[in-house]
Structures are given as C-alpha cells and as structure tokens.
Amino acid sequence: MSEQPDPFDEIVDAETDRDPDLAVIEAGSRTLRAQAGSPQGDPVPARPADPEVDKALRAVEADLATRWGETKLEPSVARISALMDVLGEPQRAYPSIHITGTNGKTSTARMIEALLGAFDLRTGRYTSPHVQSVTERISLDGAAIEAERFVETYNDIKPYVEMVDAQQDFRLSFFEVLTGMAYAAFADAPVDVAVVEVGMGGSWDATNVIDGSVAVVTPIDLDHTDRLGETPAEIAVEKAGVIKQGATVILAQQPVDAAQVMLKKAVEVDATVAREGMEFGVVAREVAVGGQLVTLRGLGGEYEEIFLPLYGAHQAHNAAVALAAVEAFFGIGSEQARTLDMDTVRKAFAAVTSPGRLEVVRRSPTVVLDAAHNPAGARAAADGITESFGFSRLIGVVGASGDKDVRGFLEAFEPIFAEVVITQNSSHRSMDADELAAVAVEVFGDERVVVEPRLDDALEAAITLAEEESEFAGAGVLVTGSVITVGEARLLLGKG
Q: What is the pTM of this model?
C-alpha cells in the first residue's frame, strides 16, 4: 500500500520551489524546528456611560489632538527613548512580542493575546489605529483599558511628557505619547507579557524601544511607500529593525526580496528564524458557519480541527503565525519538543475577535465591514468575502485616505462589486469623494459608480441598492477603504 503524502511536506516543496534564491542566506541562519479566554460581547468599547469620565476622556483626546498626528513623522526614537528614561524604563519590566509587517498585524496581535491569556498569562496589547475609541489601542487581559484608567495613565505621565517636550527639538507626537502610556500601563498592571504592534516601519518606530524576545513579521507589501520605500525589499529594511540580538523571528510568507532582507538581518544579530511554509504553516482549512475550520502545523507539531471565527484564507495564515509566535515564546522548537495543550489552543482561537476585519454588523441585507486600505489588503478581503459569503450581488461602499494607492485598491474589488458607492469619512486625510469617484469611474465605468459624500447617505444608498435585488435573496454590502471609514460606519450601524 503506497504511503499518502504529508500535506505539510507538499507545502514545504511548494515553498522551496517558490524561494530558490534564499538558499545562500538560509545557510548562514539558524532555522527553528521542533526536535522530538477572551471577553464576550462587542470588543469595541463605547463612550463611557459616566458623564464625568466621558468629559475627562474627551479632555485627554483633545490634548492628544494638539500633537503631531500619526502621518507626520520625524524618524527617530530619541524622543520616546527620553520619555522611557524619565519614566524609569517601564518597557523593561516584562518580556515582549513585537509585530511588524504590512497587513494582518492587528488580527495577529489579537490572536497572540488570546493564546497567551488562555495559558493564564496576564497580557498587555498595544495596536493601532483604533476602530472607534482611542482606548482600544491599549488592552489589558484581552479587553480595552477602561476609560478611567486611560485618563489616569495619561495624567500620571503628562508631567514627564512635558519635561521631554521641553528638551527636544520637536514635541512628542500623538503616537509617541500613546506608546509611552501603553508601556507605563503594562508595567503598572503588571503584565506577564506585552504584545506590541509597530505603528509604521520598525527601526525608527516609537514602539522600538523594547527588546522583543519574539519578533513577528506579517506579510510585507507596498504601503506608506513615501516613507518606507518603493519595493518590498526597501520596506523590509525598515521593518527588520524589530529583530533584536538573539531573538526568535516568526516570518510569514513574504516576497522573495523581502524575505532575503529579513534573513540577512537575522544572520547579523544571531536570531533564530521560523518560516511559514517551512517550519510552520496552514495544513488544511475549510469554510465553516461563522468562520473556518483549520489544521495548523506549529513548531512542535500539528494542531487539528481548530475553529477560527474569522473569514478568509489570510486569517488562517495569521493564525499560523500567531501560534508559532506563542510556541516560540514558550520555548517550543528550540528548547522543547512538544505541542501546546490542544484544548486550550482550540478554546483560545474560538474566542478570537478582530473588529472591522470582514465583520458582519447587520443582516437583511448583510453588511460587512473590512478595514482594508491597500491593494494587498483589498485582494485578501475580496477573496475572503467571495469564499465565505457567496453574495449574488455585492455593493461596495468605499471611503479611502488620499495618500493610498486607491486605483490598485479599487481594481482589487472590481471583479466582485456590482456597484460601488463612493464616499468619504470625517478625517482630514480622507480623499475627496469626487476625486475618488473619478478614479472609480475609470475602473468600474460610469454606470456602476454612485457618489454620496456623506457616509450615512452612502450606507443608506448601498443598503437600498442591495434591497432592490431582494428577489435574489443574496445581496450584500461591503464597507471598506479605511479604518476610519469602517469605525464611523460601525457607529452609524448601531455598533458601539
């Protein structure tokens, strides 16, 4: 009787064929191989019910808004390093898992957080941007920090922030202050481990004052090209800055040139590397009600029949990366040859949420939100919604930022949108609806484009278009283009 091929061996063969140019670099790096509960309800916090707390939070938000926004940068860690110094280096009080990449960072961070929490570790998670509330960015024990604690943390570090402001050429930015707040809150909790997502890039990102024992690199693609570089390899140079001396690197599938950069950096700092498709990966997956059923190959072995309540192949790959990161954190693959407890892993993944990532917020017609904002993210969302929902007719609502590749983004959705409603969000970065519509007409044709500058009008128009096709009983709406667009749509549709 002939032996059946191992599905993971097939993945390895395919990956080896795809990346032949990496052999020389891999020869110099050490690769990692095993040798032998979450909160319920809406994961996005609403405004505080207490008027006084809400007033205090609004005052902090207004204060933060006077600082440089997240798109205005002076690439340096000098200011955040100075803040950490006067705060007593809170980021050294706990081990960290540091996450960079172009797409999938927040979902991966939330999965890592869920897994660590399921193993009774107290977690802190720092992610960006937020969907609805700034408090979402700082999470303790799997839930957004309470508004009262957010305000207290800000007031605690404010004198030190002002001290650093007075000493530097530029004041600390919005993102730098929030990073300082997160690290201080984690030390004060205290947490057992911090899961930290970079804001942009890696080497000069404000988060990069930690020494992550595990560095995670989600798929790299083109985004923020004006600041990070115009090719995956150039972007990877900045993102490789999170790989520290002796760390373990969990590397998602990458373009060959980006992978070369990452592996070269790993060699330079004597880091251990585990690569998706080689040391770990997705063995099998099938669509299930409310998500998907996956089998993952971890660093220590196989994990079967894991229910993941998120849609799309990209989320299965994020799950594989998250699992490998947690295994590496526990020393599996380098120090131990075993799997994590299967039931605990299943329980953790089954409770994962990722707001604004192919999130269903309404039925009849079904309205889905996805925060994709670049072509790679759009392709993943388009594939995921096609696979998991099977709409007979899909109406898009798109509001994008002006600094993005909107043509590439719209082209990714063109095959699946019957019509698209062009709109804009309230951010000053939002692309003018008429300007975006001009690009949309070139991609979709005039007859498939509707323009509604107000987001509430756009949602109403899209839902009406979907309801007009009620005889097909399979029409839906996808709201996308920006995290801000998704967050504002979420509120308008009664979430949060």
A: 0.90
